[in-house]
C-alpha cells in the first residue's frame, strides 16, 4: 500500500542558463505573506510618504514624522504616562460596564418578544441621541467628576452592544438547541458547546467596534470635563496650537489601541472561533 504523498507548491527561479525549481509543502506561508508583515509594511509606507510630502511641500501646519517621534520621546519623559494611564482606566471601566449591560439587554431583547417590544423605542432613542448631548447632560446632572464621565461613556456605548447581541440572539439556530435537548445535555454544557459558539461572532464584533467607539467618546469626555487624560492634554495643546504635541499624543494613543487589538482581541477571537477553521 502506497503512503500518501503531500501536495507541494513549486516555484521556478532562473540563474544564468540554469533553471531551479523549489518546492514547498502545501500550506507553507512565506514571511512576506504573513498578515503582520503586510500591516507593518502599510504603516511604514504611510510614514515614508508623509516624510517625503513634508520634505517636498514643507507645509507650515504639518510636522514631519521624525519631529513627532522626537516629541513623543520628550513627552514620554514627562506627564504622558500619567495621562495615558488615566485614559486607559476610564476606557477599561466604561468598556467593561457597557459590554455587560449591553449584552444582557441585547440577549433579553433577542429571546423575549415582550422585552423587545417594550424597550425597542428606548433603544432607538438612545442610539440617535448625539454623544455630545449625553456627555453634557451627564456633567450637568452628576457634576464634573469621574462618575459622570464613566456614565456618559456607558450610555453612549451600551445601546450599540445591545443591538448587535439582539441580532446574535435572533440568529441562534433552534434546531441545534433541540438536538442538545434530545441528547439531554446539561444547561452548562449546552451553553458552552451549542449556544456560546453561535453567539461568539456577535460578541467579538460588539467588542471590537465598541473599543474603537469608547476610545473616541472617552477623549471627548476628557476634553470637556476632566482635568487629566489624553483628551485633556489634546485640549491644552490645541489652545497652544502645538500640532507636534497633538500628533505625538495621537501616535501614543493609536499605538496602545494597536497593541490591545493585536495582543488581546485577535488572539481571543482566534481562540473562541477556532472551531470554524477545523
Structural descriptors:
mainly alpha, two-stranded antiparallel ribbon, disordered N terminus, 278 residues, single chain
Shape: flat
Order of strands across the main sheet: 1-2
The value of Rg in angstroms is: 25 Å
Largest sheet: 2 strands, antiparallel
Quick summary:
The protein is mainly α. 75% of the residues lie in helices and 6% in strands.
SSE arrangement:
Blueprint: E1 8-15, E2 18-25, H1 35-57, H2 65-76, H3 80-111, H4 113-128, H5 131-142, H6 146-170, H7 174-182, H8 187-225, H9 230-239, H10 243-272
Antiparallel strand pairs: 1-2
Helix pairs in contact: 2-10, 3-4, 3-6, 3-8, 3-9, 4-6, 5-6, 5-8, 6-8, 8-9, 8-10, 9-10
Write up this protein.
- With 278 residues, this protein is mainly alpha-helical.
- It is built from 10 helices and 2 strands, in the order ββαααααααααα.
- A two-stranded antiparallel sheet has the order 1-2.
- Helix 3 crosses helix 9, helix 4 packs across helix 6 and helix 5 crosses helix 6.
- The longest helix has 39 residues.
- It is flat, with a radius of gyration of 25 Å.
- The N terminus is likely disordered.
Amino acid at each position: 500500500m502506497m503512503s500518501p504523498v503531500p501536495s507541494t507548491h513549486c516555484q521556478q527561479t532562473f540563474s544564468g542558463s540554469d533553471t531551479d525549481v523549489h518546492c514547498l509543502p502545501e500550506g507553507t506561508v512565506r514571511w512576506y505573506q504573513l498578515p503582520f508583515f503586510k500591516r507593518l509594511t502599510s504603516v511604514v509606507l504611510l510614514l515614508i510618504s508623509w516624510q517625503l510630502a513634508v520634505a517636498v511641500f514643507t507645509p507650515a501646519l504639518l510636522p514631519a514624522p521624525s519631529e513627532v517621534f522626537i516629541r513623543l520621546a520628550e513627552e514620554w519623559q514627562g506627564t504622558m504616562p500619567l495621562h495615558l494611564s488615566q485614559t486607559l482606566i476610564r476606557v477599561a471601566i466604561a468598556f467593561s460596564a457597557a459590554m455587560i449591560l449591553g449584552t444582557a439587554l441585547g440577549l433579553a431583547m433577542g429571546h423575549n418578544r415582550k422585552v423587545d417590544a417594550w424597550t425597542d423605542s428606548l433603544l432607538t432613542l438612545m442610539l440617535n441621541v448625539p454623544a455630545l448631548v449625553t456627555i453634557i447632560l451627564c456633567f450637568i446632572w452628576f457634576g464634573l467628576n469621574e462618575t459622570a464621565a464613566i456614565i456618559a461613556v456607558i450610555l453612549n456605548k451600551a445601546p450599540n452592544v445591545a443591538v448587535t447581541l439582539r441580532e446574535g440572539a435572533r440568529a441562534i439556530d433552534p434546531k441545534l438547541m433541540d438536538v442538545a435537548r434530545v441528547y439531554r445535555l446539561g444547561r452548562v454544557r449546552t451553553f458552552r458547546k451549542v449556544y456560546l459558539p453561535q453567539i461568539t461572532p456577535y460578541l467579538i464584533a460588539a467588542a471590537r467596534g465598541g473599543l474603537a467607539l469608547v476610545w473616541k467618546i472617552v477623549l471627548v469626555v476628557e476634553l470637556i470635563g476632566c482635568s487629566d487624560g489624553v483628551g485633556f492634554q489634546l485640549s491644552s495643546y490645541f489652545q497652544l496650537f502645538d500640532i507636534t504635541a497633538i500628533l505625538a499624543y495621537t501616535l501614543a494613543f493609536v499605538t496602545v489601541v494597536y497593541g490591545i487589538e493585536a495582543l488581546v482581541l485577535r488572539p481571543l477571537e482566534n481562540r473562541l472561533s477556532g472551531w470554524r477553521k477545523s
